[in-house]
Specification:
Blueprint (H helix, E strand, L loop, with lengths): L1 H12 L7 H14 L14 E7 L3 E8 L2 E9 L9 H15 L7 E3 L6
Parallel strand pairs: 1-4
Antiparallel strand pairs: 1-2, 2-3
């Protein structure tokens, strides 16, 4: 993934990070892909929202969908304390943070965890 490469470059070189043309090109490609009409759908508040959380050792995030079409994405960097959480705890935290970030207004939600306990 492009972001993994950026972090790897930043961590291994131990010097200042400079945003260059290749980073700008990767960012613009991702931005164009995610914001295409075929990718993001408008929410229908009469239908169920689904939240799919995910977590890594540095970030947590989620994807909100309806009818298998993405509506929105959420990502957050982990604090030092949060980095000590289990994967299940991080995915639950991703759901909680998503609920805080987006206004669902009491609408029906489905949440799925990717880990098995």
């Amino acid at each position: 993934m492009w972001s993994d490469q950026v972090y790897k470059e930043k961590e291994t070189k131990k010097k200042a990070f400079y945003w260059n043309e290749s980073h700008e090109k990767a960012f613009n490609n991702i931005k164009a892909t995610v914001t295409r009409d075929e990718v993001l759908a408008y929410p229908d508040y009469n239908q169920v929202f689904e939240i799919f959380p995910d977590a890594s050792s540095k970030h947590l995030g989620s994807m909100i969908t309806q009818n298998n079409r993405p509506i929105a994405f959420f990502i957050s960097k982990l604090s030092e304390t949060q980095k000590k959480y289990s994967v299940t705890e991080l995915e639950l935290l991703a759901i909680l943070e998503t609920l805080k970030e987006f206004a669902f207004g009491g609408r029906e939600l489905k949440c799925g965890l990717t880990t098995k306990s």
